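re: that chain from earlier
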Amino acid sequence: MLFTNVTVHGPTGILVTDVRVKDGHVTGSGPDSDVIDGSGLGLVAVVPAAAGGRGHMVGRVVPGIPADLLLVPRDAMPDLGTPWWRVVVTRRDVRALLTRGQLVIRDGEPLDRPANPEDARIGVWVDRNDWLHQELLPQGRYDETRGGRRHAYTGRYWLDGDRIDYLDDSGFYAFGEFIGDELFHADFVLRRRMPPTATGG
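^ sequence. v structure.
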């Protein structure tokens, strides 16, 4: 896959260049049969957080990194260093999302992929103040209660390892990340609420 004339956070700053993806990694420019015109668009990398940080953040697009990439209009590019779980983009602005070099979203449309392999992470995740309850359902749907308001946000989700992609029914993509036994999403840190256990008697 080749992105042409795309704006990136490069090794020394913002530049317009071609970016090639091969075998799950960024390899620089070169010929390819699947070409995406990146004119007016920005491509950002999802990279491990800097030393001392946790999870992933928006990083520089440089040869050799895994091709975890988000393509959006240039004016919608998240800032360099933004934690990945704080990125929110309207559906129409997500031109492409790649995970390990595989296209998982194209022109706002999610492509076919399993939502929640082996039902990992299903259950209700609750923030530290008991204000946000996010239920991850086994069918790849989520349902949020915020401040006691049920169904405040609902939509679809997909797990890719420790990262989670959300497509809200109201028309935006948001992201999150599981770090240890916590789920980081927007400004929230959540833990899974375990169902009460039955006691014998």
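The two ends are 62 Å apart (CA to CA).
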